[in-house]
Design goal:
Blueprint lengths: L1 H5 L25 E5 L5 E7 L7 E3 L7 H10 L5 E4 L10 E2 L3 E3 L11 E3 L13 E4 L5 E5 L5 E8 L1 E4 L7 H10 L5 E18 L1 H5 L8 E14 L3 E5 L5 E8 L2 E6 L7 H10 L5 E18 L1 H5 L8 E14 L7 E6 L12 E5 L3 E6 L8 E7 L4 E7 L4 E6 L8 E11 L2 E6 L3 E8 H11 L1
Parallel strand pairs: 3-5, 16-17, 20-27
Antiparallel strand pairs: 1-2, 2-3, 2-8, 4-8, 6-7, 9-10, 10-11, 10-13, 12-13, 14-15, 15-16, 15-18, 17-18, 19-21, 21-24, 22-23, 22-25, 25-26, 25-27
């Protein structure tokens, strides 16, 4: 009974006899430990300074990064690191480790990592490493372009794929959350050539809030589920979801991103805009705050190599914060047309017909998003190209043509321009085609005869 053990009682004081097919395997480490946490997988990190004695040292957060945390969690038999933050698990009581760990992330033990740096005896209050690892991994996405996409597999004794029958984004959201990814983007069912052993997850069980492993049934099926979760990145504080302060969720913690020690350009910013589905990067600016705060420092070289933002993140303190503006800021404008003789609804705009000599109007409009701006009506035909401009009044503009001529036949498009965030942005409508036929005088004579 874990509650009995955690209360400080000896194992034999917590024993109850019963029958079960579940057997416990333990992985122990005699060189690292997490103390003052809620389980063996959380607490303040301490390292045994010498195998021949029982002296333990805390580790300074400034000397510890994501790769180091992955080694510790693996050494303790836990899952991936989900939180890496100082001052979570009490004040420093042990002496401080005097070297900086330089782990590659694949070592089997922390003390197997290289270490360097000058000796130090103290660490600033609240700056000792507080680490939370996830419970031992039992869910993963494999075969995709990142750890947040691929075939869903679950470990329930053995690793098996999950059956893809009747899965929705609602069930997928639980998986993305367990993987510390963003929201669920897509769920796809893949049919294999033959049946195999898979795990069936009862959707009602997942929706009730139960863990995936509590909702498992073993079945044989050729239906496999592929999931795609978004990367946990956002822009906040701007006038649009595609502009503002860049923040990243990493190890369970949302923090702003800093380019300290690493100059960000539009090339690095493009990765964030792409993850946000916000088009290309327009500007990247550094904002200074009044004091240092917890940030994620992201290596520009790492991002340029094709790695995800989270794979390039290191915990840091800085007063330098990144503001980004991406191009896909504006909603698509609408375009419609009407004539003095026959009004045409917007749904019919693929073929807009007017009579020669009649008056017609091309209207541009956009949903209220930013004040001001202007509309450019572009016209192209086999023989010419023209551009008409009007300011946006109440988020619309109306281009009046007093007499339709054959020269007006061609394609029209509305382009909305607005100046925000110290940059010019534009968004284009779809094309409509205009055909000029007959004569207005003939049309009026036929109308009078019919009347």
């Amino acid at each position: 009974m874990p509650d009995c053990v955690q209360s400080g009682s000896a194992l034999r004081e917590c024993v109850t006899s019963y029958s079960s097919k579940s057997i416990l395997n333990l992985i122990c480490s005699d060189s690292v430990r997490l103390v003052n946490g809620t389980s063996l997988c959380s607490g303040r990190l301490e390292v045994k300074t010498n195998p021949s004695n029982q002296w333990w040292s805390s580790v300074c957060e400034a000397d510890f990064d994501q790769q180091d945390a992955e080694v510790v969690c693996r050494e303790l038999g836990c899952g991936a690191p989900s939180v890496l933050q100082g001052a979570l698990y009490g004040d420093v009581e042990a002496s401080m480790w005097t070297k900086e760990f330089q782990c590659g992330g694949t070592e089997s033990a922390l003390l197997n990592c290289r270490s360097s740096g000058s000796d130090r005896n103290t660490c600033s209050p609240g700056r000792a490493v507080g680490l939370t690892c996830s419970e031992p991994d039992d869910v993963r996405l494999v075969g995709g372009d990142s750890r947040c996409a691929g075939t869903l597999e679950l470990k329930q004794g053995d690793w098996r794929p999950v059956e893809g029958y009747i899965w929705t984004l609602k069930e997928a959201a639980a998986v993305c959350r367990d993987l510390d990814c963003g929201s669920a983007v897509s769920v796809e069912e893949r049919k294999e050539s033959s049946d195999r052993s898979v795990w069936r997850i009862r959707s009602g069980c997942v929706q009730s809030g139960s863990a995936l492993r509590e909702c498992v049934t073993s079945v044989s099926s050729n239906s496999i589920i592929n999931l795609t979760c978004s990367e946990p990145v956002r822009l906040v504080g701007g006038d649009s979801r595609c502009a503002g302060t860049l923040e990243l969720k990493h190890q369970g913690d949302w923090r702003p991103v800093s380019d300290r020690y690493s100059d960000w350009t539009l090339k690095e910013a493009a990765a964030a805009c792409r993850d946000l589905d916000c088009g290309s990067a327009v500007s990247v600016e550094q904002r200074k705050e009044s004091s240092d705060r917890s940030v994620w420092r992201i290596s520009s070289y790492c991002v340029q190599s094709g790695s995800t933002l989270r794979e390039c993140a290191t915990s840091d303190y800085s007063d330098s914060i990144l503001n980004l503006t991406c191009s896909d800021l504006l909603l698509q404008p609408n375009i419609s047309g009407s004539s003095s003789v026959d009004r045409v609804s917007e749904a019919q705009q693929q073929g807009f017909h007017v009579l020669r000599d009649s008056t017609f109007t091309i209207s541009c409009s956009v949903q209220p998003q930013y004040p001001g701006g202007s509309f450019h009506l572009t016209f192209t035909s086999s023989t010419s190209a023209l551009n008409y401009t009007q300011p946006a009044v109440n988020h619309s503009a109306h281009f009046l043509f007093p007499a339709a001529e054959p020269a007006h036949q061609g394609s029209y498009r509305c382009v909305y321009h607005v100046y925000v965030f110290s940059h010019d942005f534009f968004s284009e409508s779809r094309l409509i085609s205009l055909t000029v036929a007959g004569k207005l005088t003939v049309y009026m004579q036929v109308w009078k005869m019919w009347k």
